[in-house]
Amino acid sequence: MADRTDIPPAPPSRLARLRDSDLWYSFRAHPSAVFAAILLLLLTLGALLAPWITPQNPYDLAALELWNSEIPPLWDAQGQWPFLLGTDVQGRDIYSAILYGSRISLVIGFASVMLALAVGLSLGLIAGYFGGWVDNVIMRVGDVLLSMPFILIAILISAVATAALPPDLKSALAAPILIVAIAVPSWVQYARTVRASAMVERKKEYVQAARLIRVKPWRIMLHHILPNTLTPIMVAATLNFGLAILSEATLSFLGVGMPPDQPSLGTLIRIGNQYLFSGLWWIVVFPAIQLCLIVLSVNMIGDWLRDALNPKLN
Fold first, then answer.
1. Where are the transmembrane segments (predicted)?
2. Is the pTM higher than 0.70?
3. How far is Cα 157 from Cα 148, in angstroms, rounded to an integer?
4. Peptide bond into 82 cis (omega under 30)
């Protein structure tokens, strides 16, 4: 039997290509990025596994007991088990509330970034590919949004939507309203970035060749232009994820975000801030630390990704 030496080897898997890529090597060689990724993974796992690792469901008002209120952390002389980080004035376990609140903050932050990314990519591709009056209309709307403070637009949308809803739907639709309120002023950055790349790519030979053979515009935008714009979009989306979490916390702190019966980290900080000078410091300090750790880890990953994908630094 002849030796089959002419058979080409099987192509490497995606995991193998990722393991041998420059991006993975840059990640392993960046201690702060590794630390931030591990920290964010632990915080995310804690939030996702909250129903199984917490002693209490803070959203179940029937489970709250007032005689367990204002208990200090466990290491204090008056601390009680299983309230590791103490309780608030309603008897809500702070540790449980932080993990459940982190779930809301992470989900709202991620969903708002995805919504803004979808809108920004679509409008940016359309504006950059077609140009003309379509480009002018989309970019002028974006300029109007950029001329207004981000937080004021989010407050306006959240307040108007909440006021227009019937009382029985306000609590159920609080999270979707926040997602839309954060996403509306956020899509402009993605649209401007994609538009600039699309205006450059549409003049290249491969796009002109695709037009000559009657390839549909949406296919050209999705399969030819979009892949060349993903690098700056990935960096912007990562950094905006931390900004979206902070925006949700700010809106909830101002009272136009999540309701007290579904507290996010911003709502917990707002509630705890009322008792900061009465000696109940743990109600506001621990949620604030959790929020800082999440945003810090996301920003550290975003900074590494920006440096790793910048061709001028490689």
1. 33-53, 104-132, 144-165, 171-190, 229-255, 275-296
2. yes
3. 13
4. yes
